[in-house]
Amino acid sequence: RRSSDLGFPNGVDGFQLTQLFRQQAEKCGATIVTKMVTKTILNEGPPFKVVTQNDEEVYQAKAVIVATGATAKTMKGVVAGVDTYWNKGISACAVCDGALPMFRKKPVAVIGGGDTACEEALFLTKFASVVYLIHRRDNLRASAVMAEQVLTHPKIQLVWNAELEEAVGANDRLESIRIVERNPATETQLPQHRSLDVNGLFFAIGHKPNSQCCPDVAIDGDGYIITEKGSTKTNIAGVFAAGDVQDKIYRQAITAAGSGCMAALDCIHYLQGV
Asked: How far is 260 from 235, CA to CA, in rounded Å?
């Protein structure tokens, strides 16, 4: 259930909301095809080609908007309990979920050591009683300014040289996490295992943009599609990118929707000139 969407003061079920989006799009004439796109051929168009899984079908188009998003890096399938308590105290977006009542005046933890982790930890101090920032090294990778804010904040406790070992809960809710701490100064000292009682666990270890299906489009060093400043145009005329696949800063539903509107307008203007 989502609690941060404008116009729903009592929250809204995310699945029901997306179904309403779908119905409205279909009412406006959109044809929705539910298939996995595995590759695109964009450097030979137009017409551009979009290929579905196992080369089942090839769709041709005069223009393409890439809005495949970005996937938050987590430890699903790697650390015990993470899958079990996902969305039951564990999240990859503190800005999205950190203000929920279940985290207010409760201890929470953030995994990471870069700018994103620091930003999320600082955001959570507005609501949580204490924020544990757990980092596998003995220094932050964040900018000096951001690191200083975190290091001096009274509600943030740094846990150095530590890694998540297990997420533990009961009654369908996260209750604690187990971490393992290592001393990098010595190889003879055995790792220390301990538990932290937390109601929330937030991963802030980066995002992976879902741009792999568009190899012809220019991307930056992190895999985000590069768009012209102030527009959604890519390096290929007639191909546009919107949302988190081209946005490494904000990554919010409302900013993605706004860039989707931009992409639609850019696409219309392009088609009108073809």
From this structure: 18
Does residue 96 carry a catalytic annotation? yes
Single-letter amino acid code for the residue at 97: D
Q: What's the predicted TM-score (pTM) here? A: 0.70
Q: Which of 5, 55, 93, 115 is catalytic?
A: 93
**Rounded-to-integer distance, Cα 130 and Cα 145, Å:** 21
Residue 167 and residue 128: Cα distance in Å, rounded?
19
Measure the CA–CA gap between 66 and 241, rounded to whole angstroms: 5
Buried b / exposed e along 177-204 (16+ C-beta atoms within 10 A)? bbbebbeeeeeeeeeeeeebebbbbbbb
The verdict on whether 28 is a catalytic residue reads: no
Q: Which of 13, 55, 96, 118 is catalytic?
A: 96
Q: Is 261 a catalytic residue?
A: no
Return d(Cα 267, Cα 64) in angstroms, integer: 8
* Residues 152, 137: Cα–Cα separation, whole Å: 18
Condensed to tens digits (0 to 9), the pLDDT of residues 119-144 reads 999 999 999 999 999 999 999 988 89
- Residue 60's CB is within 10 A of a number of other CB atoms, namely 11
Strand order in the sheet with 58-61: 37-41, 48-52, 58-61
Q: How far apart are CA 136 and CA 187, in angstroms?
A: 16
Task: Say which of 97, 244, 247, 266 is annotated catalytic.
Answer: 97
For the chain, list residues with pLDDT below 50.
none
